[in-house]
Amino acid sequence: MVEKQSMSLAIFLLVLSGVLLNAVAQLFLKAGTNSLGALFEPGAELLKSIVRVVFEPYIMAGLFCYVISVGIWIVALSKIEVSIAYPMLSIGYVVNALAAWYLFGEVISIQKMTGIFIIIVGVFIVAKA
What we know:
Blueprint: H1 9-36, H2 46-54, H3 57-77, H4 82-85, H5 90-104, H6 110-128
């Protein structure tokens, strides 16, 4: 078993790249569902709906980003403790909330902004632990 390192800048950037790819995957999936419209409507053919999802370019791009992010995540976990790395996934929420506002016109309320601030502070505290 390899001894885990503390959160160096290189490890932080590795974790961050995995988190950001995961966030981009979510945004691609949302763009794909926006492109497809409502899925699995009553009376619709299940197989036809599945084929539409599988071959939607944004969905495929999202799944590709997930695969790459998992590979990066595995490397990151080999270098740092999961109790430090896993909370960093919260950064993805911050990125997605802001990107969804910008790209999809989703609302960011005062409550969401407060939560985002708390997440940022929490991630900073965990990273310094």
